Amino acid sequence: MADESSSWLIQRSRECLSVGDNDGADAWIFTATSLYPHSFPVQHEVLHTQMKAGQIAQAALQLANMLQRFNNKKELWQDVHSMLTAVSSEANDATSERWRYLFGALDSDVQQEMLRSCAEQCEDDVLSQCQLFIQLMKLFPGTVLEFGLETVKLLSRCSSHRLLCQKMLVNEALPLLLSSCHCQALLSRVPVDEIVFWLYKALFYCSQNCSECLISTAASDFMKTDLMSPTLTSPSTPRRSSIANRVKPENVLRDSWLMLLRLVQSIGLFLRWNIPSELCNSALLLSERVAVLKSLPKSHPAYFHVSFVLLLESLAKYRAALHMNSANESPLVMVSSIAESESQHGSEVQTLAVLGGTEGGKKVISDLFRCAVLCWDAVHSDKTLKTDFVNLRKKWSSADWEMIDSFEVDCWLYKRNFSQVVAYLQSLGEGDSLAATMARLKQASCLAKMGNLAKSCELAMSVLLSVLDEMHISVGDELPDSELADFTNSADVLLLPFDAVYVVPYCVAIAAEHYKSIAFEVERNDIALSHLMVLCQYDWPNMHQLFLQVMKRVKDNRGLIFESFFKYIRDIDMLEEMMWLSNTDTCQLCLLPSSSQRQRTVTRGVDKESKEELRDAFENQAKYAEDKFISTLYLFVQDTVRKP
Questions:
Q1: For the ranges 326-335, 374-383, 621-630, the one whose mean pLDDT is highest
Q2: CA–CA gap between residue 335 and residue 351 (Å, rounded)
Q3: Strands (E), 530-644
């Protein structure tokens, strides 16, 4: 009968609340509490009524009282769990906000006891238990002495939810333990091997997730947590716990890697590694920290750990910079500049140029790449360091393997190890994907440096065809204006945007280098001369001098067979030069297709009809002199690459 009566009173209170009658609701609840002071349902309803009415101070007193009187009630602990979840979340709904206000209004002793009790109830769920321990230690740093070591051990040995446990270990539990004033006392209880094991766990986690470029830095900011005041009494001035607040994206990388360095430094301090304090100076740039690393002897006990962290940081930031660049433009591909073939390999390349983008963006990308190369060299500087690095790589995911492999190939190219680049890229096989096309361009640039210009030209022409196919070229099209680089006189290594604006001139330059290498040999080569003549039109008049060399060679050879002349040559200056040459008696020119009925070799004593036919062909071709060359280039590449 009492339960039915109390339920009826509770129902009347809820009805009043639903229509906004707070006074009526209070009256019915007061009646219920007077008649049934020991009823849990009544006291539980009082708590929720006070919360909904915004009576946070009263609700806090009610909850503290209920925790003493009804400590074994499941519904009460469900509310406590809901409150702690709201405190550690960023949900903006009204219920979550009310829970956060209520938690802030509780006395610190009550807060602490709630967290302890909830953690004890989760002993079968390691992840949830550690989350509560971490929440407790953030709010009450003195509890690190009791729970810090236990939390780290639980997370480092947890086999379920492995990724989440590693993340919590690296980003929260270890920093809390190592920043505690009780750190030395706690670590003295742990074998040195286990401490080093924790460090490797941290490195494993960061190496597995460096491709994401984002690691939560909640732990690095835990000492700055804006905790709610236990005396907060009104929701009119809301203050939220920042236990799980996320940092802004631009701060994530800097804080995360700095946090990891500080973790290495803290462990190193206990192990007496004597790590230079300036490595963890937040004011230092990455390049400045790399310079500090270079000053350490390779025998330094922390040399590998510091160089590995800096390598991960530089690789992650380098990849992020490339991603930001490709979001606005095209992906970048590293290639060698076009220069004379070299047979010497292995010497360091010191100059790197990034094409496209802003000047600031170019400098960031090139600086990050150089930092990554220096750190890569550091972890490969002796056999022991290299073995440690290989052991860590075994733990990486396939995505991170791809990132490291891609960087390693670029590193070989940067250091002129062209044969290694070619061998690796050839082992990947062929394909039609964007990555495969970019790999062919990289391979072409290396083969050119190795002196294999024929194969280099073949690959460059196939890349050129793929790029022009994607453009769906038609008559009248042209490439947009760009800062077309002088590929023969620029930096040793280029980071080239993989789009037509940059790839087309680069491939044309490679092809021109090949044809130049064979066009001016002792033996006459009309095909090479003809192809050079076609390519000279692409960058006219900058290639005018090369065209004059071609014409001189034609005169020295006393003729030229170029039956597709009128299919590909449209430049008015070239047409005039060749027309003048056709009217001399010194050269034998074959410029019309052999299928032409009246085709005759142009030479002294040629018949009148042949001369008129050739003159008509020149005059007709002059009509197309103003057309854009890109469509003619596309036709030439198609015929050259797809020629049976």
A1: 374-383
A2: 12
A3: 559-561, 588-590
416-465 pLDDT, tens digit per residue, is 999 999 999 999 888 888 889 999 999 999 999 999 999 999 999 999 99
**DSSP assigned state of 602:** B
Label residue 564 exposed, middle or buried (CB < 10 Å: 0-12, 13-18, 19+): middle
**Which residues have a Cβ under 8 Å from the Cβ of 587 and sit 6 or more positions away?**
554, 555, 558, 559, 560, 581, 602
What is the model's pTM? 0.71
Q: E strand or H helix at 39, and its extent? A: none
Neighbours of 544 (CB within 10 A): 13
Domain 1-106 falls under CATH 1.10.3470: no
Count other Cβ atoms within 10 Å, centred on residue 77.
17
- Average pLDDT, integer, range 146-166: 84
Element (H, E) at 633: helix 629-641
Q: DSSP string of 155-173?
A: HHH--SSHHHHHHHIIIII
> Helices (H) and strands (E) in the chain — how many of each?
29, 5
Return the percent helix, strand and coil in the chain, to nearest 5.
65, 5, 30
**Dist CA 120 CA 68 (whole Å):** 17
User: In this structure, which amino acid lies at residue 403?
Assistant: M
Where does the chain hold its CATH 1.25.40 domain(s)?
1-106
Q: What is the mean pLDDT of the chain?
A: 78
Angle of the 144-157 helix axis to the 126-139 helix axis, nearest 10: 150
* Residues ≥6 apart with Cβ < 8 Å to 92: none
Give φ, ψ of 156 to 5 degrees: -70, -20
Say which DSSP state 415 is in: T
Give pLDDT, residue 195: 81
Q: How far is 578 from 589, CA to CA, in rounded Å? A: 9
Asked if 221 and 98 touch (Cβ cutoff 8 Å), the reply is: no
Q: What does the CA dihedral 288, 292, 295, 301 come to, rounded to 10 degrees?
A: -150
Q: Give the CB-side neighbour count of residue 384, counting CA atoms within 13 A.
A: 8
Return d(Cα 427, Cα 132) in angstroms, integer.
50
